[in-house]
Every structure is written in C-alpha cells, then in structure tokens.
Design goal:
Layout lengths: L6 E4 L3 H12 L4 E4 L4 H8 L8 E2 L3 H6 L6 E4 L5 H10 L8 E4 L5 H13 L3 E8 L1 H7 L2 E6 L4 H11 L14 E2 L2 H31 L3 H11 L7 H11 L21 H12 L4 H13 L2 H8 L14 H35 L5 H7 L11 H10 L10 H24 L4 H13 L6 H12 L33
Parallel strand pairs: 1-2, 1-4, 2-3, 4-5, 5-6, 7-8
Antiparallel strand pairs: 6-7
Length: 486
C-alpha cells in the first residue's frame, strides 16, 4: 500500500468533514477514518465525491497510507474518547509521528498528553479550532499548542486552511507549549458565552421593554452591526430574527428558552476561580444558562412570584432606549474581553507560557465565533504596551467606556424598574465600578475575619506584608492564625 496521503483525519462529524474538505481544497491529500466505519463510505459517496480524499477502514490502513512523519488529526469528543483514540492509533505510529487533537479538550489533558506522548517519541499538538461548520469549511481560527517540535511539520497545512485575520495573515500561529493552545481556545469559548449572553439580554430588553417585533429586532441588530458592534454574532442575530417558520411566523418565538452548554464556559469560570481572577461576566453567563435550563420551575414560579410589569416605551423615548441598550451591549462586551485577557495573563504567568496577546487577538479576528471589529483595537493596545495590566487602561477602551457608560447605566435602571433580568450587563458594570474604585469595603471583611477567626489584617499606615491581630472583645487571645490566600 503506497503512502501518498499528507494527513489523516479521524472523526467525521460536522467539523471533521468540513475541515478535511477544506484541506482538499488547499491541495492536500487526506485519508479519513471513523469509528463507525460506515460513515467513511457514506462521506466518500456524498460530500467528498469528486475529491482526492480517500477512506480507510482501520487505523492501521490509515497509517499505512500516510507519508512520514505521519500527521493524524483527531476531531472526536473531548475526554476519554481522545485518549482511547490515541491508544488505538499508537501501535501503527513511529517515533517522530504527530497527533493533532482539534477538539475542545481541557488544557490540562493536553498538558498530560504532550508529556506522555513525548516519552514514547510521538509529537502531540493540542489545537483549538473555532468557527463552527462554516469556519471549518472555508477557514477557521486555529490555536495550536503542545510539543514545539511538531510545529514545523503541521504549520503549512494548518495555516493554509485557516481564515485570514484583519491584516491578511492566517488566523493560526503557534500559541505555546503543552496545553496553551487549548487554554486559549477555552478562554475564547468563555468570551463567546459572555457575548451570547449580553446579546440575549439586549434582545430581552428590546422585546419586553419596547415590544419590538422580530422584524424590528432584525433591523435594529443589522443597524448595530454597522457600528462599533460589528461582529459575527451580532450579524447572525439579525439573520436569526428575520427567519420565518413554515407558517410565516418568526422562528425565534417558537424556540424553547433553555440553553445548552458543553462545558468550556464552566471550565473558564473554574480556571478563573483557581487563579483568583474576577472573570465575573463569563461566570454569570454560565449561571444564566443553568437558570434557563430550569424551565419547568420558572414556569411555576412565574405564576407565584411577583415583580413589576414591564411597560412598553414608545414615542420619542424609543430611539433613546435602543441607543442605551446598544451602549450597554458595547460596554459589556469590552468588559468581557478585558476579563478574558486578565485570565490569559494570569494563566501565562502561572504556567510559564509566553502568550502573544496581540497575536491572539488577530487569530480571533477571522474565522472564529467571537470575531469582531474591535479585536483590531485589542491588537493595537498590546502593540502599544505588551505588559498592560488590563485592556480598560488602554486609551481606546477607557474612552469608549467614558463615552457610553451613561447609556449603559440608564439601560440597567430601566431593566431593574421593569423587572427584566440582566445578569451579564449588571455584573459587567459592577466589575467596572469595582475596578475603578480606590477603596473597597474589603477592610471590613478583613476585620470580620480577624474578629471570628484571628485571620489577621494589613494596615494602610504600615508596609504591605506586615500582619496584625486585634483582640476585638477583650476576651479573646493574642494568638493569630497564619495568613495566606488560596
């Protein structure tokens, strides 16, 4: 059997099929395999008909058809399935061969796989791939990490199939060692959760607060997409509102309000807790999906729990209200990205990664779900100051918040008055106000901790790192517990 194929791909679900067709379009000869072998033959007879793609009915056959060093990309479910597929493949691989995991794997799993496979002479790449079905077919954003020795062998093919960024370069560059690629993809997905939630809250305010129809909502979002809010998610939201069901009525009004999730948003929130980073908007977005899933409970609660009845706003206030909601959406998106980059910086420090923050913004500017016009401004911010503590400190973003925060606050005042939940808008503003506040009430928290647990406190009139304990009642002892932060 002659080895004529440039790359193998395992996993013929939507993403796998479209990625391999993309590879074929760019001149690479691919061989595909799927655990349910019948899907291989179906794919070759249907979507891959007329291409150079060939099928294999076993991992052994696939590996025999690959040029050396063999490159095999896995597009399978994250978790144990990835490990099982790797073990399935290993007997047919040799030292120097490369495995690429293109699924949504947990970064710590990619850490482990990189190190374990290196001991066996196999080069592992853990790569985030974003863009959905359309992106995979015509150009996704690709975030590779893992064993640096593998980059030279996968660089050309991954960059050739990637989307183009705002500067015309491929949305694919080496992110960092071990799990760095999948970590960056995880944060991307966390920001995606936030983006979708704030867009949903804008929709809720406009529908319940103004009584806008689906066609009117489509027009508003299409108009917003011509502004600073220009982005993939705002663009498709306008299209969603315009879609009619078979009876001619808006399809959006027939979709059950219970959102699913696959875990990457939760992973981002957990990582934020572990690193002590206040990534509040992504956390609230995850909880909002959890709350949405309690549909039956919410239906029962709606008949019992009372709140204000939203009164539709009309007349001259209508356009002002729409603009206020737009301001809230834009400012909240800025907070979401700022928090995401705070988490990336903390993780890079903790894990010893040298993440190029501006380059990551460019990789996200084409092909991926969170692509938006202001990713170019994020790139400029890190070009000016690669060590910036927070994007909010950059002139572009601080000026934008200053310009639109009045409308943001007014939108939230309306939301509270009308009883419309806006958890992401609200937590974004709370974070902004907390971040810009020189003195927070944490001094009282420390006093309370010292009162009941002798946990000590620092003083503003003494050097940092010097800890004190007070006998608050006169009955306590003078022994203090050790001071530490988890």
């Amino acid at each position: 059997m002659e080895a004529t194929c440039d790359i193998g791909l395992i996993g013929l679900a939507v993403m796998g099929q479209n990625l391999v067709l993309n590879m074929n379009d760019h001149g690479y000869k691919a061989v595909v395999f799927n655990r349910t072998v019948s899907k291989v033959d179906e794919f070759l007879k249907d979507q891959a008909k007329g291409t150079r793609i060939i099928g294999a009915h076993s991992p052994e056959e696939m590996c025999q058809l690959l040029k050396k060093p063999r490159r095999v990309m896995l597009m399978v479910k994250a978790g144990t399935v990835v490990d099982q597929t790797i073990e399935y493949l290993l007997p047919y691989l040799e030292k120097g061969d490369i495995i690429i995991d293109g699924g949504n794997s947990l970064d710590t799993d990619s850490d482990r796989r990189t190190k374990e496979l290196a001991k066996r002479g196999i080069l592992f790449v853990g790569s985030g791939v974003s863009g959905g079905e359309e992106g995979a077919r015509h150009g996704p954003s690709i975030m590779p990490g893992g064993n640096p020795d593998a980059w030279a062998y996968v660089k050309d093919i991954l960059r050739s199939i990637a989307a183009k960024d705002l500067e015309g370069a491929p949305c694919c560059n080496w992110v960092g060692s071990n799990g760095a690629g999948h970590y960056v993809k995880m944060v991307h997905n966390g920001i995606e959760y936030g983006d979708m939630q704030v867009i949903g809250e804008a929709y809720h305010l406009l529908k319940a607060g103004l009584g806008l129809s689906a066609d009117e909502l489509s027009a508003v979002f299409a108009d917003w997409n011509k502004s600073e809010l220009n982005s993939f998610l705002v663009e498709i939201t306008a299209q969603i509102f315009s879609k009619k069901d078979e009876d001619g009525k808006p399809l959006i009004d027939k979709i059950l309000d219970s959102a699913g999730q696959k875990g990457t948003g939760k992973w981002t929130a957990i990582s934020a807790f572990d690193l002590g980073m206040p990534v509040t908007l992504i956390g609230e977005s995850v909880f909002a999906r959890c709350l949405s899933s309690l549909k039956d409970e919410r239906v029962r609660a709606s008949a019992i729990l009372q709140g204000p009845t939203p009164q539709a706003i009309g007349g001259a206030q209508r356009n002002e209200f729409i603009e206020n909601v737009r301001s809230a959406l834009y400012c909240s998106k800025i907070i979401s990205y700022a928090q995401g980059y705070m988490l990336l910086r903390a993780a890079a420090k903790e894990r010893g990664w040298k993440l190029n923050m501006g380059e990551i913004a460019l990789m996200w500017s084409g092909g991926c779900i969170i692509r938006s016009v202001f990713l170019g401004d994020i790139k400029k911010a890190f070009d000016k100051n690669p060590e910036t503590d927070n994007l909010l400190m950059d002139d572009f973003f601080s000026t934008a918040i200053k310009k639109y925060q009045t409308g943001w606050r007014r939108a939230l005042m309306h939301a509270v008055a009308m009883g419309i939940p806006t958890p992401a808008f609200s937590t974004a503003l709370a974070f902004y106000d907390g971040y810009r506040t020189q003195c927070l009430p944490a001094n009282l928290i420390q006093a309370q901790r010292d009162f009941f647990g002798a946990h000590t406190y620092e003083r503003i009139d003494k050097p940092r790192g010097t800890f004190f304990h007070t006998n608050w009642t006169g009955h306590g002892g003078t022994t203090a517990s050790s001071s530490y932060n988890v």
